[in-house]
Amino acid sequence: MAIFKILVLLLLSFSCFCQAQLSPTFYDHSCSNALSTIRSSIRTAISRERRMAASLIRLHFHDCFVNGCDASVMLVATPTMESERDAVPNFQSARGFEVIDQAKSAVERVCPGVVSCADIIAVAARDASEYVGGPRYEVKVGRRDSTAAFRAIADSGDLPSFRASLDELSDLFLRKGLNTRDLVALSGAHTLGQAQCVTFKERLYDNSSDIDAGFSSTRKRRCPVNGGDTNLAPLDQVTPNSFDNNYYRNLMQKKGLLASDQVLFGAGASTDSIVSEYSRNPSRFASDFAAAMIKMGDIQTLTGSAGQIRRICTAVN
């Protein structure tokens, strides 16, 4: 029993040590211009295409939920490795890869071989959020990059489906160390961006009771019953390019675009009170979103001598 306790303490100490290596000041001495260089690159990209803010936040989410925040989502397929980009939840859907590549190139010119792609993705999500009105928060950095991609995991349910129930979403987030409030706060990222008709069309035509009739009628114009699956519609019809709390107001009016959004409110959902709180209190939403993003950024990080610092984000060294 004594040996078992010692082993447990050693494991806990090692875990804490790895987490402690992530710090907002990680690059202060090794690459003091790293974060400002990333920020400049991200702001340039979003100034060209406002929608890119949503894409970069989503890219961080899709990276972290598949085997941790390790930039595995950036790797392209090789004869010996399948790419997460080709997984069903990402294929022709995940965006922003070229923006991360550009930021990596900019950082490499300043500090070659120092800053990981995983950190660039995490910092880019924060900078994207802030650029369109979201909260500014300190990103912990010091992650390293994976040497493999995990398409099978990406296809096996570690990324939430647009049809997911509240129980399914809650269980998935819990497995990643995120609680119900984290789930509702992170879902608020859908105040930005657009979705393809294929992800919500069935809700428009199945006479569902959880969608506002006028909202549904408006969406049908863009998403005909036959065809138009790749047509885009804003997740928030009111302010699709600004980070605000309209997402939660929409849910309370049965105007959530995806089924996995609307399950957060209505029919006595356990998350009703959180949605209502965020709809009334935008500052609480902003602070909880920032906290949840920081927490998500801690999922299964590679630190120390694990992984590597890729020279380019699309390929292993």
From TrEMBL:
Q: Specify which residues bind heme b according to the UniProt entry for this protein.
A: 190
Q: Which GO terms describe its biological process?
A: hydrogen peroxide catabolic process; response to oxidative stress
The intrachain disulfides are 31-111, 64-69, 117-313, 197-223
Q: Which UniProt keywords apply?
A: Calcium, Disulfide bond, Glycoprotein, Heme, Hydrogen peroxide, Iron, Metal-binding, Oxidoreductase, Peroxidase, Secreted, Signal
Write out the residues that bind Ca(2+) 2.
191, 236, 239, 244
Where the protein is mainly located, per its record?
A: secreted
Tell me which cofactor or cofactors this protein depends on: heme b; Ca(2+)
**Top-level EC class as recorded in UniProt:** oxidoreductase
EC numbers on record = 1.11.1.7
Q: State its location(s).
A: Secreted; Vacuole
GO molecular-function term, one example from the UniProt record: heme binding
Q: Oxidoreductase as a keyword?
A: yes
Quick one: signal sequence residues?
Answer: 1-20
Q: In which residues is Ca(2+) 1 bound?
A: 63, 66, 68, 70, 72, 84
Site description Transition state stabilizer, residues in chain: 58
User: Which Gene Ontology terms of cellular component type are present?
Assistant: extracellular region; vacuole
**Limits of the Plant heme peroxidase family profile domain:** 21-317
Q: List, alphabetically, the Pfam families matched.
A: peroxidase (PF00141)
InterPro entries linked: Haem_peroxidase (IPR002016), Haem_peroxidase_sf (IPR010255), Peroxidase_pln (IPR000823), Peroxidases_AS (IPR019794), Peroxidases_heam-ligand_BS (IPR019793), Secretory_peroxidase (IPR033905)
PANTHER family, A to Z: PEROXIDASE 4, PEROXIDASE 72-RELATED
Q: What does this protein do?
A: Removal of H(2)O(2), oxidation of toxic reductants, biosynthesis and degradation of lignin, suberization, auxin catabolism, response to environmental stresses such as wounding, pathogen attack and oxidative stress. These functions might be dependent on each isozyme/isoform in each plant tissue.
Give the protein name, as stated in the record: Peroxidase
